[in-house]
């Protein structure tokens, strides 16, 4: 069953600590939709055959005001389905959006037509101080909690890392915090997922996930004297 979802970025379960939980919710909705699609398709074929035109058939369509029992049925069943989806996803949503674990690394990401700016606090761990550094790409350590302070300088953008199953709008005038923990080293695409102007399609960044040794090497290189 999981093989049918192999087309998800970096496979089923992604490369972040909560990607597997998000994919489990997606799998539930996927198979539920799959089942409903075939149920409707089969019923449609059955009805087409049962009620197709036959030579000499004198039956005529008649007007009916409705059927209360059927109307209740097709109202209650979708309501139960939506409650089921909420029940399956509420724990995942609460774990990801409802709380943010203490971060090991913090970075401020600013979106602007049509690119990303990544700002890192220096040894004092404070933003907007003299030891801050910026880079054209996002660099994070493996298996560490990263807290992102997300901003926009102009219009609404969307910070989207498909491999992490992470997506969050960047809204002008607000700073929104999100977090992730990458579980596999590599280089991952960071596109903008909100139409933000004529250069939207080219607004692509990169997330580099390093081993602890490689991350410390990058830190030393970034903060070495000019």
Verbal overview:
With 226 residues, this protein is α+β, with helices and mostly antiparallel strands. The radius of gyration is 25 Å and the shape is elongated. The chain has helices spanning 19-50, 68-97, 212-222; strands at 105-112, 115-120, 133-135, 138-141, 146-152, 157-161, 166-170, 176-180, 186-191, 204-210. A five-stranded mixed sheet has the order 3-2-1-5-8, with no helix packed on it. Helix 1 (19-50) packs antiparallel against helix 2. The termini are far apart. Helices cover 32% and strands 25% of the residues. It has three helices and ten strands.
N- to C-terminal separation? 54 Å
Strand order of the largest sheet: 3-2-1-5-8
Shape annotation: elongated
Topology pattern, helix = H, strand = E: HHEEEEEEEEEEH
Low-confidence stretches: none
Total number of strands: 10
Beta-strand residue fraction = 15-25%
What structural class do you assign from the helix and strand content? alpha+beta
CA radius of gyration is 25 Å
Could you give a short description of this structure?
With 226 residues, this protein is of the alpha+beta class. It is 32% helix and 25% strand.
Name the features.
226 residues; alpha+beta; five-stranded mixed sheet; 3 helices; elongated
Topology summary:
Elements (H helix, E strand, L loop, with lengths): L18 H32 L17 H30 L7 E8 L2 E6 L12 E3 L2 E4 L4 E7 L4 E5 L4 E5 L5 E5 L5 E6 L12 E7 L1 H11 L4
Parallel strand pairs: 1-5, 4-10
Antiparallel strand pairs: 1-2, 2-3, 5-8, 6-7, 9-10
